[in-house]
Amino acid sequence: MPTDQLSTTFAALADPTRRAILARLASGECSVTELAAPFDMSMPAVSKHLRVLERAGLIERRRDAQWRRCRIEASPLKEVVDWAEHYRHLWEGRLDRLDRYLQELTAKEEESHDRKQRGE
């Protein structure tokens, strides 16, 4: 069954190791060896993560003489941002309503406290 690009991107981003790799690549291109350094795993395991990211279109790998270099491809992330943007508006509205409610409760508590202080 074919999977849409957004699902493929989310699947690739679901793993913390792959997110850490993308975070490292956000600061610039580097070698596979440099990407693997912070992780306590074998090079074949790192390569599997890189293949998942590459299939999702999130990274591009190339050979530079004997070095294998990787760089981030951010275009699939735009689709994620666009998808999340719709929900951001929803949550902002809910959080705004919650903020108003909490302000009302605080005002009522302060009013009640003031009445008790005045002996009413």
Automatic annotation (TrEMBL):
InterPro entries the record matches: ArsR-like_HTH (IPR011991), HTH_ArsR_DNA-bd_dom (IPR001845), WH-like_DNA-bd_sf (IPR036388), WH_DNA-bd_sf (IPR036390)
Superkingdom of the source species: Bacteria
GO terms assigned for molecular function: DNA-binding transcription factor activity
Chain ranges of the HTH arsR-type domain: 1-92
PROSITE patterns: HTH_ARSR_2
Protein name per UniProt: ArsR family transcriptional regulator
One Pfam family per UniProt: HTH_20
